[in-house]
């Protein structure tokens, strides 16, 4: 107990030292230590792991055994597992079947749409799928439209559980027939002549009504979302969204997306709208169901490959797509229906086969949008070292945001020498800030970097994490001459 207390005292005295050595921990670079102290973040709430590719030991291992919440950097575990187990070329199909006879553009029976968990079945691709059904000679459906969502288990999912904001699209739960991320997008269009704001809803669904009480005002745009109030009403079957507040003319046109309906209700409403637009009719209803024996395949839609999907997940930290990928691993590795429990088991088995022991690992949904998920900086770092030697390394690293260039890191360190030289996934939750990935240092060496902060002041950790990236990129190896002298030789 006394030793632990002494370590905490040692780690608390960070200001002004070039290198700070704490009991049981490796040294922290001075700029990192100073930034942590300035942000009110104790070293006991911080985990760092820095390891040169090919080196026997890490250059920095501070608090690296702590089991911490990694926020969205947990997506690195899910996406690396998917690239290796599914393969970079793996794709998802969405299939359409006909149960009944088809004559003169009339299907005397049911139409079945079966999903297999496509993470990126967009509005445009779903529309093209239905157009292909029409092109196969189906105009009138004298039966029901069955939505087969059985490839994933219908597990209870509360979109309000994480942060109490169930209409935000990032809180959308996974589904085997996820279309357009189950979202509607509201476009705000100022009309100065009438001093009003037009709200354009896409896609326009009969099951969703948007009520406009927004006033157009003069002034700077500033935080335009904070000046609006979004009040959901109704149910998951039929919803209203009342939008009120003020909207500044200087904002120009802006968009905001919402998730209001349940999965079945959303696809049912979208199918009805698009089928009508392309000249089709349905006698029955759109409901859940499965293809009966003897149903024949009409057509299908293929998703982008896993290599593209993981890029979207990591570059833009897409939680919905990460959950879809996580359940796909469960269904693919342990049989349908995919469940969270199966996905966890499959990933643990994969890690064990690779010799990556992670006894502290806790995965809830594989996206990092969780208060339960845990991993240590060492485990994350060792997995990144392993990934660098994997056949899927090029696809994996290319999926990570490039500092100062793209994705969620595009605005970080734009004028630093490390800009464009690091592939880094970030993670942000209340009380959590994390980064993990690879830095190409000034000597052309690849370095694994993991930095996780779990503390009420974690929002102040950006400066320390940026300082670490700059330090790793520009550090000199002990005993070597400065770069200028080496070039002169």
Mean of residue pLDDT?
92
Binned, the helix content reads 25-40%
- Percentage of residues in strands: 25-35%
| Amino-to-carboxy terminus distance | 53 Å
Q: Kindly report the name of the CATH homologous superfamily of the largest domain.
A: DD-peptidase/beta-lactamase superfamily
How many beta-strand elements? Answer: 20
Extract low-pLDDT stretches. 1-26, 478-489
CATH overall fold name of the largest domain: Beta-lactamase
Number of helices in the DSSP assignment: 12
Summarize the structure.
The chain has twelve helices and 20 strands.
Write the layout of secondary structure elements.
Elements: H1 2-12, E1 19-20, E2 28-29, H2 30-38, E3 46-52, E4 60-62, H3 75-85, E5 93-103, E6 106-115, H4 123-135, E7 140-141, E8 145-148, E9 184-191, E10 196-202, E11 208-217, E12 228-234, E13 239-248, E14 254-258, H5 263-277, E15 281-282, E16 286-288, E17 296-302, H6 306-316, H7 319-334, H8 340-353, H9 377-388, H10 393-398, E18 422-429, E19 432-440, E20 446-454, H11 462-474, H12 483-488
Helix pairs in contact: 2-11, 3-6, 3-7, 7-8
